[in-house]
Amino acid sequence: MKLVTFTHDGRSRVGIVAGDAVVDLAAAAPELPTEMVALLEAGPDALQTASAAVDAGPRLALADVQLEAPIARPPKFLAVGLNYADHVAESGIDTPAHPTIFNKQSTCVTGPTDPIHLPRVSHVLDYEGELGFVIGRRCRHVSRDDAADVIAGYTIVNDVTVRDWQLRIPTWTVGKSFDTHGPIGPWIVTADEIPDPHQLRLRTWVNDELRQDSNTKELIFDCYTLVEHLSTAFTLEPGDVIATGTPSGVGIAMKPPKLLVAGDVVRIEVEGIGQIENPVIDEPAETARVE
Question: Partners of 81 in the beta sheet?
């Protein structure tokens, strides 16, 4: 299944993509939660109910709905740095012995077609196309052999990065967490439809220029190893999003660097999942607010 969060007639809820349409689960299976984290928390039986509702449920044309980030506020949004050998090489550092984990604040999450803001405080803005996976079961101390059982599905992440803010201190969280700097989507493809998440082609374009072209088989620490590593330290929960790292081809490493500017469009495609496409705009004045 392709699980989506979408907005139609001013109301957001979850659905399932079927061809060029969305099955509205709020109408097809009203007993189910209408928010993605709650749906995942409801467990395998809820997902089976959702799947069974596809054929009979009312449909909306994909063109008539707004696709949102499938999980608007992940309980945890974790990411992995330096997890492709070619990206390590272009960064000029040693291959890490252990996964380099950092947080992206959940308020950075935005949808698969929403704009990315070029911050007013920096113009050193970069893209990072990544495979993401979503936790489906509350778990701790999961072995690598059992890790596939706790992954609900897979999605696409752009780990947008403000490079000068990332690198001016040892921890990366602030430079990775500006508002709008976590595009996710366009949906969650359930794990049963991705037989091997470590054999997926990943490509990133800026405008029409192909910048990244790799395969998840090149991951240094794969999805299952990451589940084992993370769950050793803390509980993973339904709706947690883990971005697995980016391959070579980021803008800052090019000679000369090719950083994002207003007017650019970043498109990331992962085999078996789909694509996200986000325009870059100057940060709007109205982001300065107190509520």
Answer: 100
Q: Cβ-count burial of 30 within 10 angstroms (0-12 exposed, 13-18 middle, 19+ buried)?
A: exposed
Whether the CB-CB separation of 76 and 182 falls below 8 Å is answered with no
Q: How far apart are CA 289 and CA 291, in angstroms?
A: 6
CATH 2.30.30.230 fits 2-67, yes or no: yes
- Note down pLDDT in tens along the chain; length 291 residues: 999 999 999 999 999 999 999 999 999 999 999 999 999 999 999 999 999 999 888 999 999 999 999 999 999 999 999 899 888 888 777 888 999 999 999 999 999 999 999 999 999 999 999 999 999 999 999 999 999 999 999 999 999 999 999 999 999 999 999 999 999 999 999 999 999 999 999 999 999 999 999 999 999 999 999 999 999 999 999 999 999 999 999 999 999 999 999 999 999 999 999 999 999 999 999 999 898
Q: What pTM was computed for the model?
A: 0.97
> What is d(CA 18, CA 60) in angstroms, rounded to the nearest whole number?
10
Alpha-carbon distances of 179 from 16, 111, 186, rounded to whole Å: 27, 12, 18
Cβ neighbours around 285 below 10 Å, total? 8
For the chain, residues classed under CATH 3.90.850.10 are 77-287
CATH 3.90.850.10 fits 77-287, yes or no: yes
DSSP 84: B
Rounded to whole angstroms, how far apart are CA atoms 163 and 122? Answer: 9
List the structure tokens of 248: 């070579």
